[in-house]
Design brief:
The complex is a heterodimer of chains A (286) and B (381).
Chain A (H helix, E strand, L loop, with lengths): L1 H8 L6 H33 L3 H10 L1 H34 L5 H13 L2 H12 L6 H6 L8 H12 L1 H14 L2 H8 L4 H30 L2 H7 L9 H11 L1 H34 L3
Helix pairs in contact in A: 1-2, 2-14, 3-14, 4-8, 4-9, 4-11, 6-8, 6-12, 8-11, 8-12, 9-11, 10-11, 11-14, 13-14
Chain B lengths: L2 E10 L2 E11 L4 E5 L6 H9 L6 E6 L2 E2 L10 E4 L11 H10 L9 H14 L15 H13 L5 E5 L7 H18 L2 E6 L2 H7 L2 E6 L2 E6 L1 H6 L4 H8 L2 E3 L1 E4 L2 E4 L2 E4 L10 E6 L4 E3 L7 E11 L2 E8 L6 E6 H4 L9 E6 L2 E6 L5 E7 L19
Parallel strand pairs in B: 3-8, 3-9, 6-7, 7-8
Antiparallel strand pairs in B: 1-2, 1-4, 4-5, 9-10, 11-15, 12-13, 13-14, 15-21, 16-20, 17-18, 17-20, 18-19, 21-22
Helix pairs in contact in B: 2-3, 2-4, 3-4
The chains are: A mainly alpha (286), B alpha+beta (381).
InterPro entries (chain B): AAA+_ATPase, ABC_SmlMolc_Importer, ABC_transporter-like_ATP-bd, ABC_transporter-like_CS, P-loop_NTPase, Sulph_transpt1
Keywords (chain B): ATP-binding, Nucleotide-binding, Sulfate transport, Translocase, Transport
Protein name (chain B): Sulfate ABC transporter ATP-binding protein
């Protein structure tokens, strides 16, 4: 603790002991990151291409894998816009209105972060499953939720619920509502205020939130595992496909996993660019 | 006609922001609402702009109920203390906003919008800045953009919230003069809110002094300054300093002196406040003429001398203000005794609820010759 305090508080030319502490801390952090994050990530790509590029392409071109890619994209294409709208609405409500139960709403938004994804999946089965509360009603109307696309989407929406809202709320809180009020006195209506004043001010934070939301939506395993039923080519998303392949074909599993890892890298890259170009508007008030 | 505000009340929980506030504003008038923070002046402004609704009371404009109109249809221009410019729009886009968001039937043509934006930017002397962003402007320039943006909708009432609050002293003084001239050339009814008495007294046709949600006094700057209606106005505007004093019959007793008090009816009076202004505490010309005091401090500020005085019999020191020229005839140093004389005292009599029931000025008689001879030094000290 003393070393950390010294590094933080002393300006100008640091003394030898301070410099030593700084080097030690940096080395420790880089070592941990390298062992826990960088090496495993490299290992995935190494394993994926170990039997050659042709094998890699073959593994990916399997019909079941392609179906999993399609399903993952479909689920994300529904879940992300839903959470985009929900996040904007929740953030707006939390920052512009005073109402009863505001604290409760804030806690509920955070709930998916604190609930284990497996429990989230189980809850969906309890409610929509065959022997769940709405199960017989849904079955009578010919709708299948669990072990089908709707269940996957619900599970994904639940798990990724906080991402957009949590990104927007602090920013909108810091910005206050003066500009919206100014727009109102200038004669703008609600939609004009939203699209011309509010949205442009939060657009980068919104994009950032959507990016994180999307990465999680495509990579979610636990909740989706419970409600999917693992029907190969039908209800297997990419992470589930990786899990199944892992039992049978080690290298093919890594080839498919490398697709997910690639998604991570792309997300990280775009996130970094966003932070670099719009760092001030992402977090600080204007 | 103009605007008639009557009996407004606004309460937030147990905090009363506005308490029975009534005010008439004539067409074209320039009115300042002056008060410390928390006095309710911003609440009044927000209600007039339509950003808040009062619990009780009414606001009429030319006989029309203003409160029934939504903020966006009120035709009220509001300039925020921190400008609230749209950071992602250029200066020209900011100014054009109010015209561009009109329903298409009422929206001017693009060329007409461009022309009026140019005209407005010319008015506020920012022609060359049309394509800049707010972040690239100084505080004073942003203030003028906010003003132009509010004026673009041709408001019938202009509201300014602490218009100079966020600016540094030099810019503030220049912009004050500029805004006064601007109002004169425009003639638009304007209400501005400030906590700075210099600003209010220098700029406004009329000043409304507010405290704790109530209007303490409405009057011209001269009236407010020379005849403060309440002890609060006296303290806040004229820097009146409380003296220990009481009224018995028709005489005022202060620090062992008794003076005749005219025009002060003491019925219903519960408490009495006696105030003296810094400029009304003058050095006595002869020893033994006034009240004994000790000179605690001396500061020279822009042509005046501010002296801290410990008057015998008082706990709190008093501040006196003299011109450099007058003070140059005296040669009392800090820490030395000095005799002072009160030229004028303001006396306020309040009832049990704290309402002022009687007020008058007292001019203690002073026998010294009008021509002071100096340099003067108290003898036998």
């Amino acid at each position: 603790m003393a070393a950390v305090a010294a590094v933080v508080s002393i300006g100008g030319r640091p003394s030898w002991s301070v410099r030593g502490a700084r080097i030690a801390l940096v080395v420790a952090a880089v070592t941990v990151l390298a062992w826990l994050l960088v090496l495993p990530l490299l290992a995935i790509f190494a394993e994926a291409f170990r039997q050659g590029v042709a094998f890699f392409l073959d593994a990916i071109r399997q019909p079941d894998t392609l179906a999993a890619v399609r399903l993952t994209l479909t689920v994300a294409a529904i879940a992300v816009p839903v959470n985009l709208v929900f996040g904007l609405a929740a953030a707006w409500a939390m920052t512009h209105f005073h109402f009863r139960g505001k604290a409760l709403l804030g806690a509920l938004i955070d709930l998916p972060f604190s609930v284990s994804p497996v429990v989230a999946g189980m809850m969906l089965i309890l409610v929509f499953g065959k022997y769940g509360w709405f199960g017989s009603w849904l079955e009578a109307h010919g709708w299948q939720v669990i072990f089908a696309l709707p269940g996957l989407v619900l599970a994904t929406v639940f798990v990724t619920l906080p991402f957009v809202a949590r990104e927007l709320i602090p920013l909108m809180q810091a910005q206050g509502s003066e500009q919206e009020e100014a727009a109102l006195t200038l004669g703008a209506n609600g939609w004009q205020i939203f699209f011309r004043v509010t949205l442009p001010r939060v657009r980068w934070a919104l994009l950032y939130g959507v990016l994180l939301c999307n990465a999680r939506a495509m990579g979610e395993f636990g909740a989706v595992y419970v409600v999917s039923g693992h029907l190969r080519g039908l209800t297997n998303t990419l992470p589930l496909q990786v899990d199944q392949l892992y039992e049978e074909n080690f290298s093919a599993a890594f080839a498919v996993a490398s697709l997910l890892a690639l998604l991570t890298l792309v997300t990280l890259g775009v996130k970094r660019v966003l932070e670099w170009r719009h760092g001030e508007v992402l977090h600080a008030d204007h | 006609m103009g605007i008639e505000i009557s009996r407004l009340r606004r309460q937030f929980g147990s905090f009363i922001a506005l308490d029975d506030v009534s005010l008439d504003i004539a067409d074209g008038e320039f009115v300042a609402v002056l008060g410390p923070s928390g006095s309710g002046k911003t609440s009044l402004l927000r209600i007039l702009a339509g950003l808040d609704q009062p619990d009780l009371g009414s606001v009429q404009r030319d006989g029309q109920d203003l409160l029934a109109l939504d903020a966006r249809r009120r035709g009220v221009g509001l300039v925020f203390q921190h400008y609230a410019l749209f950071p992602h729009m250029t200066v020209a886009q900011n100014v054009a906003f109010g015209l561009r968001v009109r329903p298409w039937r009422l929206r001017p043509k693009a060329s007409a919008i461009k022309a009026s934006v140019e005209a407005l930017l010319h008015r506020v002397e920012l022609d060359a800045f049309a394509s800049r962003y707010p972040a690239q402007l100084s505080g004073g320039q942003r203030q003028r953009v906010a003003l132009a943006r509010a004026l673009a909708i041709e408001p019938r009432l202009l509201l300014l919230d602490e218009p100079f609050g966020a600016l540094d002293a030099q810019v503030r003084v220049n912009l004050r003069r500029w805004l006064r001239e601007f109002h004169r050339s425009l003639g638009i009814t304007t209400l501005f809110v400030t906590h700075d008495q210099d600003e209010a007294l220098e700029m406004a046709d009329r000043v409304v002094v507010m405290n704790r949600g109530r209007i303490e006094q409405i009057g011209t700057p001269e009236q407010i300054y020379h005849q403060p209606a309440t002890a609060f106005v006296s303290r806040f505007i004229a820097r009146g300093q409380p003296l220990p004093g009481e009224v018995a019959g028709s005489s005022l007793h202060v620090l062992g002196h008794a003076w005749q008090l005219d025009g002060f009816s003491s019925t219903d009076i519960h408490t009495v406040a006696v105030h003296v202004r810094p400029e009304h505490i003058v050095p006595a010309t002869r020893h033994g003429e006034g009240l004994a005091a000790c000179l605690l401090s001396l500061r020279h500020v822009a042509g005046t001398v501010r002296a801290g005085l410990q008057v015998e019999g008082m706990d709190e020191p008093l501040e006196a203000e003299w011109s450099e020229r007058d003070w140059s005839r005296h040669s009392v140093g800090v820490g030395e005794p000095i005799d002072v004389h009160f030229q004028s005292l303001s006396v306020f009599g309040m009832d049990r609820e704290g309402r002022v029931r009687a007020r008058t000025d007292c001019h203690p008689p002073y026998s010294a010759s009008p021509i002071a001879i100096g340099p003067w030094r108290r003898l036998g000290a």
